[in-house]
Amino acid sequence: MTPVVDLVLLTAVIINLQAGGTASFFHGLAALYLGVSVAYGHKMVRWADGHFAYRFAHGPAPVKRYGPVYTRESWKDAARTGVAVAITAGILWLLIAIVADPRRTGALQGIFPILGIWFVLDLIWAISYTLWPKQQLSATKVFEEKQSGAKREGRTALADLIGYSRAGDTVVVSSMDRLARSVVDLNQIVGELVAKGVVVEFVHERVSFQPGDADPFAEFQLNIMASFAQLERAITRERQAEGIRAAKARGVYRGRARKLTAEQLAQASELIEIGVPKAQVARQLGIDRSTLYRSLARNP
């Protein structure tokens, strides 16, 4: 479909100029569009499809490139830009030849310096990432919350995060519902961090909040996204409850993994000490291996 649109656009431009029209910046812009469409069309479609699937169809997150992979992609983009520049320049020269009047092609002539600047900038970009490869950011400190529940009280990891953060830091959170379970708490926590000069980024929602950002739309966006996250969590809980009810009706629901008594824990330790595999010990006690591992970790 895209080649047809490109051909129609080129034909319309040529007909307009042959009819005596004066070449304008928009004619040059049409030539530039045609060059970019041919050189970058496939990549742009893949990019748009990937991001649409991620945002609206629960598709995988777009893969970010770093190091040599990003460098190679930069050189590929430079090559694509070279192709786009060559095609655009060819179309411009064709249009100039059709008009055959320098007084009516000044706008087209003005596009050539722009093409040169674009190509040189892409070359500089590729060269810079060849000399200084783009490195993947790594967290200097990771805070993982063990406390579950909707209330903020007792969340020691969150308190440690806020206390540790300093102006200029960036806090990266996997999703809004990992930082807070209610719109009020999310606003409060983000507000505290931003007030300290900390940037807060949410990976799943693909938004960030900057210090000094008093944009009312940003606050509105935060509230809307937090509301959706809260709704999604409520739906998940309801589905979980429905699954439990269905399992109970079938007689296959076992409930939460039961904890070991002190006597069972001592027995498990003795069996493990004499060389009995932990999986076998868990089966003998009628518990999951994860329950056994947690009990042993809490009682070394």
Question: Which helices and strands appear, and what pairs or packs with what?
Answer:
Blueprint lengths: L1 H17 L6 H32 L10 H33 L6 H4 L1 H21 L24 H9 L5 E4 L2 H4 L3 H13 L3 E4 L4 E3 L6 H35 L11 H12 L4 H8 L3 H10 L2
Give an overview in words.
This protein has three domains: 2-131, no CATH class; 156-250, Resolvase, N-terminal catalytic domain (Rossmann fold, 3-Layer(aba) Sandwich), CATH 3.40.50.1390; 262-298. Helices cover 66% and strands 4% of the residues. The longest helix is centred in the last third of the chain and has 35 residues, at 216-250. The model has no long low-confidence stretch (mean pLDDT 77). It has twelve helices and three strands. A hairpin with a 4-residue loop joins strand 2 (199-202) and strand 3. The chain is elongated, with a radius of gyration of 30 Å. By secondary structure, the chain is mostly helical. A three-stranded mixed beta sheet has the order 1-2-3. Helix 2 (25-56) runs antiparallel to helix 3 and helix 10 (262-273) runs antiparallel to helix 11. Pfam families: HTH_7, Resolvase. Keywords: DNA integration, DNA recombination, DNA-binding, Membrane, Transmembrane, Transmembrane helix.
